[in-house]
Amino acid sequence: MAEHIALQYPIAGDAALEPPAEWAELRGTCPVAHVQFASGDDAVLLTRYEDVRATLADPRFTRTAADGGGARVSAESGGVLDSQMASVLPQHGEAHLVWRRTLNKWFTAKRMAALRPGVTAKAERLVDEMTAAGDSADLKAAFGFPLPVWVICEILGVPEADRDRFSYWSDTLLSMTRYTRAEIVAAQTEFHAYMAGHLAAKRAEPGDDLLSELATGSDMSDAEIIATGQGLLVAGHETTANMIGKMAVMLLADRTRWEALLADPRLVRTAVEESLRLDVNAGFGMVRYIDEPFEVGGAVIEPGTTVVCSMAAANRDEAAFADAAAMDLARTPNPHLAFGAGAHSCLGQALARTELQVALEVLLRRLPTLELTVAPDDLQRVEGLLVGGMAAVPVRWRT
């Protein structure tokens, strides 16, 4: 295995829309690379498409180390990878499959089709509020964040009015370097108490929502239901909120892309997939563990090694995608790995796709003159969290 001991992970690019140069170098010369996390612990990084896909799909790999060890992502423990929430939920095997099956029916294509008109109406209202306030806004704060928060709150049956609290709790769980151990523990304690209160209320007076169904019609323990609610709330808004902003930036950075979508809105679905594939700020990637030797990329990974799969680097692999660095709005097929692969692929990917498609459709229809107010290279990225994105997406439009 080639040595890259000094390589710090995650690897940041020089600009918001450009991949780190190291990705291509590693795919070409060191696809199984030694890296070091912010905690100071060592791990192995995979960057080639076939290696990442094979590892994510291999049932022998787990999301947590069997012995409770493994490399720490952050020196401040308590984040999502070693939280109470993660310890309560089944992470692999039959128990994990049962847990997913219990939730799957809430994220089927049929449910997404039924949800779509409501998502569209909410997106329209958000644009109404933006345009009523003037001719410019932070698209992430005014549109990208509140849209998926409203959706996941509707599904779970919790009040959207608490969205700022959700955002803070989510950020602490996803922290690598932003929060202290004490801040993370305090936030988790508040978050747990909040979900426990809602669980008790749902059990006393059920509604037509996921928490009510789990509370009254599942075999999950209270701890599992609370952790499920926490996990869905974090995953259901944080990543999608960031992706709406990143997608807009990618499409507006080169005006010909936005104009192509205005000319042919039928490209929205493939444009969403291509935006997911080309996302260079996808975040940390997926951490995996295995307790037996595993051969990948021409190297043998020893038992007990922490492996991190960079889906973002894999999605730019020329061996998997023709002209991989180019944004092809009509690319098909597009088997990107943005949602992972295998038994741990994103449970809510149908929901995320619905939200991204609706967001883009509404923005194109309502704000065809939308444009960035800063150069793409001047955009500031989210720092210190496991998820990536833009700190803000300043835009304007002509009325």
TrEMBL record:
<keyword id="KW-0560">Oxidoreductase</keyword>
<dbReference type="InterPro" id="IPR001128">
    <property type="entry name" value="Cyt_P450"/>
</dbReference>
<dbReference type="GO" id="GO:0004497">
    <property type="term" value="F:monooxygenase activity"/>
</dbReference>
<keyword id="KW-0349">Heme</keyword>
<protein>
    <submittedName>
        <fullName>Cytochrome P450</fullName>
    </submittedName>
</protein>
<dbReference type="Pfam" id="PF00067">
    <property type="entry name" value="p450"/>
</dbReference>
<dbReference type="GO" id="GO:0020037">
    <property type="term" value="F:heme binding"/>
</dbReference>
<dbReference type="InterPro" id="IPR002397">
    <property type="entry name" value="Cyt_P450_B"/>
</dbReference>
<keyword id="KW-0408">Iron</keyword>
<comment type="similarity">
    <text>Belongs to the cytochrome P450 family.</text>
</comment>
<keyword id="KW-0479">Metal-binding</keyword>
<dbReference type="GO" id="GO:0016705">
    <property type="term" value="F:oxidoreductase activity, acting on paired donors, with incorporation or reduction of molecular oxygen"/>
</dbReference>
<dbReference type="GO" id="GO:0005506">
    <property type="term" value="F:iron ion binding"/>
</dbReference>
<dbReference type="InterPro" id="IPR017972">
    <property type="entry name" value="Cyt_P450_CS"/>
</dbReference>
<dbReference type="InterPro" id="IPR036396">
    <property type="entry name" value="Cyt_P450_sf"/>
</dbReference>
<keyword id="KW-0503">Monooxygenase</keyword>
